[in-house]
Amino acid sequence: MVGSFILFAMLFKLPIGISLIIASIAGAFVAGEGVPIRHLVEGSFLYFDPILIIATAMIFMEVIRRSGALGSISRFIIVRMHRRPFWLLFFLTLFIMFPGMITGLSTATVLTTGAIAAPALMLLGIPHVTVAAMIAMSAILGMIAPPINVPAMIIGGGVDMPYIGFELPLMFATFPLAISFNLALGYKYVRNIQIDKMIPKLDTDYFEIYGWRLFLPLLVVIVLMLGVRIFPAVFPNLGVSLIFIIGAIIGLFCGKKMNFWHVSHSAIQEALPVIGILLGIGMFIQIMTLTGVRGLLVIGSLSLPSFWRYVSIAVMVPLFGAVSAYGSASVLGVPFLLAFLGKNEIIVGSAISLIAGLGDLMPPTALAGIFAAQVVKEKNYFKVLKVTLIPAVITALWGILMILSANFLAKFM
Amino acid sequence: MNQYKTHLMVGIISIAAAVILIIVAGKQFRQMHHDEPLFPSQFLTRTIPLSEFNKNLQDTPGDATIYCFEGNEPGGNVLIVGGTHPNEAAGFITAYLIIENLRVQQGTVYVLPRANHSAFTHNDPQEGHPQFFTIVGKTGERRFRYGSRNTNQVDQWPDPEIYLHFPSNQKLAGNETRNLNRAYPGKINGTLTERVAYAIVNFINTEHIDLAFDLHEAAPEYPVVNAIVSAGRSQELASEANIELQFEDLYYSIEPSPYNFHGLSHREWADFTGTYPILLETANPMQGRLRGKSAASLIMTGLDPMYLKAAKLGVLKVPYDNAGIPLNLRVGRHVAAIAKIVDVFSRNYPEHAIIVSGLPTHDDLITLGLGRYF
Predict the structure, then answer these.
(1) Least enclosed by CB within 10 Å: which of A170, B80, B130, B368?
(2) Cα dihedral A398, A399, A405, A408 sign
(3) How many domains does chain B have?
(4) Which of B29, B170, B261 lies closest to A160 in CB terms?
């Protein structure tokens, strides 16, 4: 399967999604399953909801960009905070992470607060690829940070461990890393901001023209996302996709005029390659499971001696996360947690979820990387992944250290 | 213009391919929407729709049939729930076997074999599970569905990102919102899964069920497997039955229901009804993440080369060798545990005694096979 994927993706230069579909069919055929259409369709359907979220989030982002809201927020951030570069990066990191902390979705994070922060960071002089890397890492760590961490919930659910007591371990796993990474990557560029030279480069302040209604779509999206979390009994659960569409529709009437057909057309066109990859990955995994390759991988990882088992977690869990961070948490996270029984399960589960989160940087899906690249208008997302390499390795090591010292850390958490 | 024509052609081909996929896959998916016929024993006295206990289930895919076997003498009431997770074959096959073979002398036995009726109509994506498996019965091959852990998304969609359990507000991953065994005590007008859970809890309370079983399976690497899970008042009963089962060379671990993990049948039936709740687990390799090929035969044989390797690695929680863990053995464990617990309960509470016959023993199922009882 891997061979045929490489053949079609690299040699014949077919789109990654199509190559994955062909590789899945080839895998099934070789395993004597023929062309199992039901399995191919079923596998891809796991990503039905994520695809809807991605499509609607892209439309929402395009609407608030064209309405002038994004540019105005960037201007506001730079003008108000340019004298305090450390705190500027500190608070921007928390700001970017916020939707991930609430929704547990890195994609939604990149495409909302990531998209808001990106223009500001680029105008401050940080190279656009570095900005994308900062956003991608913040989004992933935001997805893992408390209160909502879906991979940890999936791992816990696999062993009937309630999602209780994860707050401190997850804070320890994420906040120090996120703030350090962004300072390390961005501080040297923002140390000496010459605001006079920068002002002419900034977008028009549409706030002066449209007032607070410019930010209404953002506000509505944030309120609807938070409301269902904080007041679940009062707020209807609309689902993230519908929330983004509501935000996008409101955005049409709150800033610069735009043609909704053109906006949605260009947004979907940008999202299509990722949607194709998700469909292909869904089929690929289904066939891997059907033919026994998945079991082979899991058994292979568990067969390794103790030292290599840690290496395997650091490598295999993110690698499998190329399928999805959630899939990795379920398929490998649960057996690894069971393999480390005796160590504090909450710390181990938190650490594995941290490492699983890195799957959103792993090609071909690399959802956080791809969308962060799109946010800064970089066509080659591998350039972004290159910058995230060192932070990703540090994140994996941080997770491994947490597992090694789980019982010690548990005394303080 | 040429580019336009190319785009048009690609568009037409894509739509045609999509239509073919929809027709072929759709026909296969539709097959699972037909309930396999059951042939209840002649001692069945009546059937009751689950929706009688929550009107909001009427005419929905969540409605299911409760099979009622009433003895001639008054006694206690037992409920046996199968199909909470229709990917746990021994759970619902045990319930089917009981329906087709049971005779009740004293008391009443209720069997709900397809507790999550909707979950029988699809498979879990990316698990590569078969849709059907067959048992060769007395009258020939009988085909049974192998379903999903969760309610079909066609019937309950979309999942929230985070599932907030009612009424505890416990947080779980969003897809658990369709897991019946995370939905108790349920909600009268909640999601389809919550409505089913509510109906079951209301049934237990309305019919004064003394003893209630929830039949499950788990992956062989899962910590709670080959187990009897009990909560509060049923712990003593489970322990007593377990000791007697050991005399029959049947070994189970006794697991207490976690007090802080909500939504589980044993937890919430204990807290929201007056019944003695028991959950039974056997080991099913088809559910495990370590398994090799996902062939239908694995459901029946329970023999998988990857699990043999896993056993050598020491990562399994059950004994596992070349004999595998076949379905007749798993069903045998469930039937034996149910019979023993009912027996102990009847001895301890003679005014609520339940006396049944017609069911095979564990040894019968090992030696004669499942087909003898279907």
Answers:
(1) B368
(2) positive
(3) 2
(4) B261
